[in-house]
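Q: I have 183 residues here and want to know how they pack in 3D. Can you give me a structure?
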Amino acid sequence: MTLEASIGVALSTVMDPELRRPITEVGMVENIIVQDDGTVTVDVLLTIAGCPLKGTITRDVEKALAAVDGVHSVIVRLSVMSQQQRDKLKEKLRGPQTAPGIPFNDERSLTRIYAVASGKGGVGKSSVTVNLAAAMAAEGLRVGIIGTDVYGFSWALSARILPLEASTHSSILGRNASVTRPR
């Protein structure tokens, strides 16, 4: 095996500590220069400028290459990936994707979110929430209620859910209702 091939094999054992993949696989090795005197210079691309693990990566590269016969010294030069290189890495790790989005906003999604809110207390938000849920469940829709009232779960009291067993929820809100008890 040639010295260059041995260096490539050694570098393939160096893992990015965050991505847990070889640095050669994720495009972090930009360039390798092998000099006649056995000095190897490796240009390593970090994913971000302030990479907190750059010392670990440097030590791991030095250690891996020091074990290669014919390598007498190692120089590791660090630089940062361009945005285009980072985007390519993301696509490689995640696979091809469309732009990130909210799954509920997809027009094919059956999930709909309705928020009942007011800047004032005591105006009937819980009553409206429970009645909307009950009406939608009666129409055959699957319904869930999430309450975020910091003073208590008055919607659960309105629906008489808290003191009841799980089997009685469907009789109150309809057979398609699901309820998550506050903890």
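Q: Anything worth noting?
A: The first helix runs from residue 3 to 11. Residues 117 and 125 are 6 Å apart (CA to CA).
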